[in-house]
Amino acid sequence: MITGTQIRMARAALKLGVRELATHACMSPATISRIESGAPANASTLQALELTLKNLGVYCNIDDTGDIAVYLSYSSMENGEKWIVSNIIEKRRKQKKDENNAIRERIKSRHDENKEKIIVQDK
After folding, report:
1. Distance between CA atoms of residues 55 and 49, nearest Å
2. Quick check: 7 and 36 in contact, CB under 8 A?
3. Please, which residues bridge with residue 62 across strands?
4. Of the candidates 43, 47, 52, which has an alpha carbon nearest to the alpha carbon of residue 21?
5. Is the dihedral of CA 12, 17, 18, 23 positive or negative?
């Protein structure tokens, strides 16, 4: 079930005010404000908010350790944000490729060292 903190985080990611989210969710802004401040809410209200946010491109999750997360889908981002995210992804791919190449080099180096030891022992 979605939390008030996640709703606030989702609104921030979407750059929506309380009134705008309330309009999308067909509920009062006061209801959203109360939930965000930690007041209890009906399960059906929370489900409606979660579905509304999902339709707007935001996915909320709580993992097994209790950490909460809010994910903004790529399609919901503005062009500037997409450019930033694309650059970050490209940097991570390059970093991963460099790490993999370094691991391959270490493995090859160890393999070559072992080959030399075998050759020396054979003589």
Report:
1. 10
2. yes
3. 68
4. 52
5. negative
The pLDDT, as a whole number, for residue 88 is 75
1 sits in which H/E element? none
User: What is the predicted pLDDT for the residue at 23?
Assistant: 96
Which has the closest alpha carbon to 60: 35, 79, 90, 85? 35
Residue listed under structure tokens 């393999």: 111
Residue type, 81: E
Is-contact 46 1, C-beta < 8 A? yes
Torsion sign across C-alpha atoms 106, 112, 115, 116: negative
Q: Rounded to an integer, what distance in angstroms lies between the CA atom of residue 31 and that of residue 50?
A: 14
DSSP H or E run through 92: helix 79-122
Q: What is the DSSP letter of 37?
A: T
Could you report the per-residue pLDDT of 23-48, keeping only the tens digit for each?
999 999 999 999 999 999 999 999 99
Q: 80 φ, ψ to 5°?
A: -60, -40
Tens of pLDDT, residue by residue over 45-85, are 999 999 999 999 899 998 888 888 888 887 777 777 777 77
